[in-house]
Design a protein that fits this description.
286 residues; Rossmann fold; 10 strands; alpha/beta
């Protein structure tokens, strides 16, 4: 489905019923916006992990502008601010009041910014494998220098420079870097079936070559008022766990969980534990 909002068209998909029977009564399910990472990816890799939560939540997946199945446009519009405002416009388009906001990686940056800007519409905030300021760029390069192969260091330079020339180069980057993204990665293991992810190098380049270099929310995290769960992976190379700890320390009464057998892709390394943690948090923080 597509929503024509603001100056773009956003692709979205909904998993789970809005109304469910509870005996003789019908109850509305809470609505969760699932915010994908990147920038430059799409929502499809999130579905296998999070869609089982649809027995308790109505899940709204969407692709950021210029990414996935959403409309392309002027590259200079592929910004964090526009991603946040597009998300708010989509909430209004769908006629939803309060939402659960769940963002992973770059999606976590969007989620944090949204919760700061629109606290009145956030019932719960969940951020996974994310950071609150640009210092992660330097720290990730330090970790890569320690752990990475020469091939990984070389191909990562395209990321730091924001210099991917096409989708094939971006896809090659993820293939080479996957052993760092996933703590349990085994190239000989069969990969779970999922729709092919559409990669958008323009969005990646605009972010890493531009606005992520001056990104900072640290002095605003105290404005978040919703119950908040912060999740990090112990072996995360690009959003290392010290940044999850920092986020949790600055949001009032935030819960922090570090997954000891995960890198950046906790949804790949420990999917069941991730779902259980999220479900438990939502029940406990009702």
């Amino acid at each position: 489905m597509r929503a024509k909002i603001r100056d773009t068209e956003i692709y979205f998909d909904i998993v789970g019923a809005g109304l469910v029977a509870d005996g003789a009564q019908w109850q509305s399910q809470p609505v969760a916006f699932i915010i994908h990472g990147g920038p430059g990816g799409d929502h499809t890799p999130d579905k296998p992990t999070f869609s089982p939560l649809s027995h308790k939540l109505q899940l709204v997946y969407f692709d950021h502008r210029g990414q996935g199945r959403s409309a392309r446009g002027a590259k200079e519009t592929y910004t964090l601010d526009n991603n946040v405002e597009d998300m708010e416009a989509l909430r209004q388009y769908l006629g939803v009041d309060k939402i659960i906001v769940l963002g992973t990686s770059y999606g976590g940056m969007v989620a944090l910014t949204y919760a700061i800007r629109y606290p009145q519409y956030v019932s719960h905030l969940i951020v996974v494998s994310t950071v609150a300021d640009s210092r992660f760029l330097i720290r990730a390069q330090e970790i890569l220098a320690e752990r990475g192969t020469e091939e990984q260091k070389a191909i990562a330079q395209r990321l730091w420079d924001g210099a991917f020339e096409n989708e094939e180069q971006l896809r090659e980057f993820f293939q080479v870097m996957m052993p760092l993204y996933s703590f349990t990665y085994n190239p000989n293991s069969p990969q779970p079936a999922s729709p092919p992810m559409t990669l958008s190098p323009d969005a990646t380049n605009v972010a890493f070559g531009g606005f992520l270099r001056c990104y900072s929310l640290l002095d605003q995290l105290h404005k978040i008022t919703s119950p908040t769960l912060v999740i990090g992976g112990r072996h995360d190379w690009i959003c290392p766990p010290e940044f999850s700890e920092e986020i949790a320390s600055k949001i009032p009464n935030a819960d922090l969980r570090i997954f000891n057998n995960s890198s950046h892709l906790i949804r790949v390394d420990e999917p069941e534990a991730l779902r259980d943690t999220i479900a438990g948090f939502l029940v406990y923080k009702q």
